[in-house]
Specification:
The chain contains 17 helices and no strands. The chain is mainly α. The chain has a domain at 1-106. Helix 10 (147-154) packs antiparallel against helix 11 and helix 13 packs parallel to helix 15 (227-234).
């Protein structure tokens, strides 16, 4: 019964309808639904300090009456984290779902110096990434080091999949970081072949994008000897095999220079091809 009531409560509360339902339901019904929302119930069981009690009270008041989310957005819940940051870091999907549904809660708040979305990317929580992707207030790319670049660099495949799926409308797949590396560059650098595959399947991917040194993802994959990544890039229809970087080297030159013999053999059959499928 409690689970059933909780599901009903979840279905009623969301950024798009939380205000509207106050005008359509009686006060007693609204209070009942608020108090049976799974995320709020979890918070009421876990809070123990005076400040945590005050934060939970503010959340309940926001659900019932609107207002300003001062404590929710600014006060520390635990270890210097706001309650949203703490919930994301702890992987508590029910609490995150509650918080992102409440108008006034800042879904982009920074922490050392990560946003909640970036914390979700690091923890590889696709469910939370989906919640943020569907949140109208989310700013997917607040910094040069975008969540997609972070996920591609550290090999968080599930995070890359979730970002490409749920944040697609607000995502620049070819965004470059401070050294002009894209997500594809970073995935190629560390040999994350599944991530490379996902990125190559994404519409508009710039396979020949150059970093600060004029290197493409193919240059980098060849230099580091990632055979599977090189094969994926060579199979892409618009890859330019013979491009030279700022030092005048091609991908084949880098493979030879670094003694990546398997990559060298693979590239030698493509060096005269400008673009292929």
């Amino acid at each position: 019964m409690d689970a059933f009531v909780g599901e009903i409560a979840i279905s009623f509360f969301g950024r798009s309808n939380i205000t509207a339902i106050r005008d359509t339901l009686s006060e007693d019904v609204i209070v009942f639904l608020v108090d049976n929302t799974p995320g709020l119930m979890r918070l009421q069981r876990t809070n123990c300090t005076e400040q945590q009690n005050a934060i939970v009270k503010e959340i309940r008041d926001l659900m019932l009456f609107n207002g300003r989310a001062n404590l929710v957005n600014d006060a520390a819940w635990e270890d210097g984290l706001t309650i949203l940051q703490w919930a994301v870091d702890a992987g508590d999907n029910a609490i995150v779902e509650l918080l992102v549904s409440i108008p006034g809660v800042d879904v982009n708040v920074f922490y050392r110096p990560l946003t909640p979305l970036e914390l979700a990317v690091y923890s590889c929580n696709a469910g939370i990434i989906e919640m943020f992707g569907n949140s109208p207030g989310i700013v997917v790319e607040k910094k040069v080091q975008t969540p997609l670049i972070i996920a591609a660099e550290i090999g968080r495949t599930e995070s890359v999949e979730a970002l490409l799926k749920y944040a697609a409308g607000r995502l620049r797949v070819n965004a470059q970081d401070a050294i002009n590396m894209t997500a594809l560059h970073w995935a190629a650098r560390y040999g994350h072949s599944r991530i490379v595959e996902l990125l190559l399947d994404y519409p508009g991917i710039a396979v020949n994008s150059r970093n600060r040194k004029g290197q493409t993802p193919l240059h980098i994959a060849a230099a580091f000897g990632h055979v599977e990544v090189v094969a994926l890039l060579l199979a892409f229809r618009s890859v330019y095999v013979n491009l030279r970087d700022d030092t005048g080297r091609t991908a084949l030159d880098w493979a030879n220079n670094q003694k990546r013999y398997r990559v060298t053999r693979l590239l030698q059959s493509h060096v005269t091809v400008i673009g292929k499928k």
